[in-house]
Structure formats: C-alpha cells, structure tokens
Automatic annotation (TrEMBL):
UniProt keyword terms in alphabetical order: Hydrolase, Metal-binding, Zinc
Signal peptide positions (record): none
PROSITE patterns the record matches: CARBOXYPEPT_ZN_1
Protein name as annotated: Succinylglutamate desuccinylase/Aspartoacylase catalytic domain-containing protein
A family per Pfam: AstE_AspA_cat
Organism expressing this protein natively: Thioclava indica
Domain Succinylglutamate desuccinylase/Aspartoacylase catalytic, chain residue ranges per copy: 35-104
Keyword Metal-binding: yes
Amino acid sequence: MIAPGTRQTVDLPVSVLSDHTPVSMSVHVIHGKADGPTMFVSAGIHGDEVIGVEIVRRLLRTPHLKSLRGTLIVIPILNAFGFINHARYLPDRRDLNRMFPGTPGSLLRIFHGRGDVVASGDLMAVVCDPFGENEQEITAPFDGIVVGRAVLPVVNEGDAIIHLARVQSMKRAEDAVGDLNDQLSDDPLFDEDEII
Ligand SMILES: [Zn+2]
C-alpha cells in the first residue's frame, strides 16, 4: 500500500536463475496527493539501449512530480538480463519487445534425442517450475521418430519441445537413420588440428 503523496520502489520478483539466484525488477510508484489517471513508463526493454534508462532517471527526479495528480508507475530497466550483459535480447535470444503479455518460463527435461524411435504414450519430457512443485509430463501423441528437440533448459508457452516425425514404415525410418549415422561416422569431420 503506497499512501497518496508518497513514492516507493517495489522490487517485483520476475525470475529465478537455474541456480536459484532471484532476479527482480524495480518498479517506482509515484502516488500523487490528488486523484487522477495512472501512467506507465518503461525503459531498457532492449538491454543495450541505455538512453531510455537515463531519460527515466531524469523523469524520476523532476520537481513536477510533487504536484502530480494520479499515479506514475516507472520501470527503468525491463530487461535486467540484457542490461547487465550489454545485450539487446533475453539470454535465449528472444526479444522482450515481442513478448507481451507473456507467461512465466519453465524448466525442461527431455528424455529423447534425435533418431530415437518412440511409441505412442512414451514419456518424452517433463516441464516444471524451478522448484519442481508443478510438473507436467509430455507424452508422444503417436508412434514416430524424433527429428528435432529443444536445446535450451528453459521453455516458454508456445515453444516447440520435440519434433516428432510420423513415418509410414518404422523399419524403413530406422534403417534410414542407421545409414545416416553410419555415413557420418565413416566420414567424420576433420579436427581443426588435423587441417592445420
Ligand atoms: Zn528498442
């Protein structure tokens, strides 16, 4: 509760790194003495664009705020990960500017790799919150062969996790994958050392 005529900085927890380090987002709330509209200002959605952060700093210091009617909500750095790393995007290269309204990310464990043959109903992966309190199992919707999988340990709603190919003949698909593996192992890429 922020009383009229006061201002406060609220640290909103936004994420937990894989080692449980908490990440928060500072929200400045300036609550005018008199009633009025609420305005929201943000900066730093692209972590390498620091000019907006400076503009917001000046806005937060302007004397006019003393006679503010209504409420001003200001977030100087939306993309804390990018700001710390001098990078535009989130650590997994997604653009925070394209993520509204968004959903919280989850941890992903995958039990199958490319080339694995799976049967309908096989456990493919588990998605859970960082504390493992809510786990959701993902099973194969049909018999098939894994042709692609997510490589990042964090997933968001809408992300593809496993690409499962439906095949007409499992035997032929297995043979084709076996042939491919044989070709790759017969003709391996040179090590850099061998080329030099
Ligand atoms: Zn931008």
